[in-house]
Design brief:
This protein has 19 helices and no strands. The protein is mostly helical. The protein is globular and about 60 Å long.
């Protein structure tokens, strides 16, 4: 069971109306169980979604090439998916703000089930354009499911928030390791049943998303949004009736600016280098697809498995210092990658790239939550993910042009420049806050 013990604020929030030491002790046990259980449910949901997404996305390029008859459109499903992820974040945030995290996540998994089922139908019925709609719906689902990390942040107070977020992000490791394992058996089963073999992974993903939707609807009770609001109320002993800020108003805060910058620039550096590494390996270094799989597996492992330590580091060192560490790791990865020709060295460089992204992503997410009041979190967090997703989609599109014009080394140099910018801006904010204190 995931150990995310609540603080005294959590206890008082859930023990509203309890009197006497005996009653308080009973509520202590219940509140620990509630926080642990809800955090585990969110972790399980992220793991299920990661397994489904990875198994479907992995065959998306192959499905597009098969349906359209040309490799020129092989990258379109991935781009549509990233765009859908961005577009799904904002409406989900507004929905969660009004109706709660549970409903938003349940619907998100439901949309994922529809999208992956449509992907399977596209291959069986041979309707090429439906493949893009399927991946758009899958992206919308991803935009909703990613809000689960903010639901975990609602469950605890500030000193444990990064650890709570990191546990949910850790669920992505399941997809990176286990997702590809579903592809072979699912494809063979589909062939035995007389269907297109590529339809198999989509069917498996649809079943996983149905499972995730049921898990969220049945087990995510009480709603993390409500616990977060009670936590804030218990800390001040008053009900916060201050109107929620708009995203533009919140952006005036230096902490919000730092959080947004960390997530955007970290995502851009990671995306551009990661997307072009397989092409660099096959076209210029003449590696096999098996070598590419090893490198990408190392990268995904770095992205998610490092969450085991990231939350602890962020809660102890502070968000700003953790972002600085992430920026330095991104710089190191961009220095190593262009000079690595062997599979092992490339895998090490991409692993470091993933860890750097994780440090920026987890710390930025936690810092953003700390900087917002409970009544404005879901909507502004959704807007944040919308911007991060849009920039990532643009970076994915431009990375191909960059590879042709300035090469893999040029892309790495651009990544170094962006990571240095992130380092400088964060260092300025950290020193400014220290001077102000």
């Amino acid at each position: 069971m995931i150990d995310v013990p609540p603080t005294s604020s959590t206890i008082s929030a859930l023990a509203d109306g309890a009197k006497g030491q005996n009653m308080a002790a009973a509520v202590l046990v219940v509140s620990q169980n509630v926080v642990r259980r809800l955090t585990f449910v969110l972790f399980a949901g992220q793991s299920i979604a990661s397994l489904g997404m990875t198994s479907a996305i992995t065959v998306g390029a192959l499905a597009a090439m098969q349906l359209f008859g040309t490799p020129a459109v092989a990258g379109v499903p991935s781009t549509v998916f990233v765009l859908g992820t961005a577009l799904g974040a904002y409406p989900t945030g507004r929905l969660m703000s009004r109706y709660g995290r549970r409903l938003g996540l349940t619907l998100g998994f439901g949309v994922g089930a529809v999208g992956t089922a449509l992907g399977a139908f596209t291959l069986i019925a041979v309707v090429p354009l439906l493949l893009m709609i399927a991946h758009l719906l899958m992206g919308l689902a991803r935009g909703a499911v990613d809000q689960g990390r903010f639901a975990a942040a609602d469950l605890v107070t500030q000193e444990r928030r990064a650890r709570a977020i990191s546990w949910v992000v850790l669920g992505g490791t399941a997809g990176g390791i286990g997702g590809p394992l579903f592809i072979g058996p699912a494809s063979r089963l589909a062939t035995q049943l007389g269907f297109d073999p590529l339809a198999g992974p989509y069917v498996v993903a649809a079943l996983l998303f149905v499972l995730g939707s049921v898990v969220m609807f049945v087990f995510l009770r009480p709603d993390p949004r409500d616990i977060g609001r009670r936590l804030a109320q218990s800390a001040t002993m008053v009900v916060d009736t201050t109107p929620a800020r708009t995203f533009r108003e919140a952006l005036r805060s230096a902490d919000v600016q730092t959080a947004l910058t960390a997530m955007i620039l970290g995502q851009v550096v990671m995306t551009t280098v990661m997307v072009m590494t397989p092409l660099q390996m096959t076209e210029h270094l003449h590696h096999t697809l098996d070598d590419v799989a090893i490198v990408i597996a190392a990268h995904v492992t770095g992205m998610y498995a490092s969450s085991i330590v990231t939350g602890l580091v962020a809660d102890r060192l502070g968000h700003g210092r953790t972002i600085l560490v992430g920026a330095m790791l991104l710089i190191l990865a961009c220095v190593l990658a262009p000079f690595a020709s062997e599979t092992i060295r490339l895998a090490a460089a991409l692993f470091v790239l993933g860890v750097g992204w994780n440090f920026c992503f987890v710390s930025g997410s936690s810092l953003l939550t700390d900087s917002l009041r409970p009544n404005e979190r879901p909507r502004i967090q959704g807007t944040n993910d919308l911007l991060v997703g849009l920039v990532a989609a643009l970076a994915s599109l431009l990375s191909g042009i960059g590879f042709v014009t300035i090469g893999y080394t040029g892309i790495a140099l651009a990544g170094i420049t962006l990571a240095l910018t992130l380092f400088a801006l964060t260092l300025y904010t950290v020193r400014w806050k220290r001077a102000a204190a």
